[in-house]
Design brief:
The longest helix has 20 residues. Strands 1, 2, 3, 4, 5, 6, 7 and 8 form an eight-stranded mixed sheet that branches. The chain folds into two domains: about 55 residues; about 250 residues, 2-enoyl-CoA Hydratase, Chain A, domain 1 (Alpha-Beta Complex), CATH 3.90.226.10. By secondary structure, the protein is of the alpha/beta class. The chain contains 14 helices and eight strands. The protein is globular.
C-alpha cells in the first residue's frame, strides 16, 4: 500500500511492508543471503505486529480504521455478494440521490432488495456519492425500495457506511428529518426480514434510517454512534480536538455495542483490518448475512415484524 494508506498508529507496520516490498523487487543477491527466507521472516514479524496492534485498538483508533479510504464500501459488497444486481434510482418525488445505492438482485440464489450508503473511493466517486451523506430523496428512495421488498416478499439487506445525513440547507428545505423518520417507520412496517450490516462508519440518524433491522451486524473495526466523536467533542468540550476523549465516552465500537445489546453479531475482519484484504472481508460478511437470514426461514410475516419491534422496544426498557 502507498504511504497515505497507513494510519498514525501503523508506523511500524508501514516500515515492514516497505521492506518486504523492496525485497520482492530485488532481482539478484549475494549467495550467502537467502531472499525468500528474509521475506518469510519479515512476513511472520508483520503478522505478529498486526495481531498485537489490532487486538488493542482504542475507540478513536477504531474510528480511524472505520474511515480508512481503502476499506471496502457498499458497492464492493454488492459486487462481491449480489448477482444479477439491477440498480434502481429515484424517489419518485424529487430526484435521484447517489449517496444511497439500492436495487434488486440475488444473494446466494435468493431474491433480495439491497440498500446501502456509498462513500466512493476516489475524488470523482466521492463527489458523485456525496461522501455517503444522503439528502431526503436518498431516504425516500430507501422507503420506496423497502415497500417494493415487502410487496414481493424479498428480504432487505442494508449496508451502513455514513458520517451522517447531509447537513446542508437544501436537505432541510426538502424535509431531511421527516425523510429519516419515514425510513425508520418503513423499516418497522415491512413483513420481510431486514439484515443491516455496519461496514464502516455508522453516524447519527443517517445510519439508523436504514439500520432498524431484525439483525444488526457490525464489522469488527466499524463504529456506530448517535454523533461523530468530533461533533460530540465540539458540543461537550467546545473543542473538536477532544475527539479521542469523546470516542471513549460514546461507546461506539462493535464490542461495546454488542455488550449493550444494540447489535447482534460482530464479523471478524481480516488480519490488519478489512482494508488489507477487502475480498476476505466481503466473503466473511456474506457468511454472516446468510446465517442471519436463516433465522427467519420458518417465521411468518407478522412474526418477523413483531420480532423486530420487540428487539427495539427491549433496548428502551430498564433491566
Amino acid at each position: 500500500m502507498d504511504q497515505e494508506a497507513y494510519l498514525d498508529f501503523e508506523k511500524n507496520i508501514a516500515e515492514i511492508d516497505e521492506r518486504i516490498e523492496g525485497l520482492r523487487h530485488v532481482t539478484g543477491s549475494d549467495d550467502d543471503f537467502d531472499l525468500d527466507e528474509e521475506v518469510s521472516g519479515l512476513e511472520k514479524k508483520l503478522e505478529k505486529i498486526l495481531d498485537q496492534t489490532y487486538a488493542k485498538l482504542t475507540p478513536w483508533q477504531k474510528t480511524q480504521v472505520a474511515r480508512h479510504p481503502k476499506r471496502p464500501h457498499c458497492l464492493d459488497y454488492i459486487n462481491g455478494l449480489i448477482t444479477d444486481f439491477q440498480l434502481l434510482a429515484g424517489d419518485r418525488l424529487f430526484g435521484e440521490d447517489e449517496a444511497v445505492v439500492g436495487g434488486i438482485g440475488r444473494f446466494r440464489g435468493r431474491s433480495v432488495v439491497v440498500i446501502g450508503q456509498e462513500k466512493g473511493n476516489d475524488i470523482e466517486t466521492r463527489l458523485k456519492h456525496n461522501f455517503g451523506m444522503a439528502k431526503p430523496e436518498g431516504y425516500r428512495k430507501a422507503v420506496r425500495l423497502m415497500k417494493l421488498a415487502d410487496q414481493f416478499n424479498m428480504p432487505v439487506l442494508t449496508f451502513v457506511d455514513t458520517a451522517g445525513a447531509y447537513p446542508g440547507l437544501e436537505g432541510e428545505e426538502r424535509g431531511q428529518a421527516e425523510a429519516i423518520a419515514s425510513s425508520i417507520d418503513a423499516c418497522f412496517s415491512v413483513g420481510v426480514p431486514i439484515v443491516a450490516t455496519v461496514i464502516g462508519e455508522g453516524g447519527s440518524g443517517g445510519a439508523i434510517a436504514i439500520a432498524v433491522a431484525n439483525r444488526i451486524l457490525m464489522l469488527e473495526h466499524s463504529v456506530y454512534s448517535v454523533i461523530s466523536p468530533e461533533g460530540c467533542a465540539s458540543i461537550l468540550w467546545r473543542d473538536g480536538q477532544e475527539a479521542q476523549k469523546a470516542a471513549e465516552a460514546l461507546r461506539l465500537t462493535a464490542q461495546d455495542l454488542k455488550d449493550l445489546g444494540v447489535i447482534d453479531d460482530i464479523i471478524a475482519e481480516p488480519r490488519g483490518g478489512a482494508h488489507r484484504n477487502p475480498t476476505e472481508a466481503v466473503l466473511k460478511t456474506g457468511e454472516a448475512i446468510s446465517g442471519a437470514l436463516a433465522d427467519f426461514n420458518d417465521m411468518t410475516r407478522e412474526q418477523i415484524r413483531r420480532e423486530r419491534e420487540e428487539k427495539f422496544l427491549k433496548m428502551t426498557r430498564a433491566e
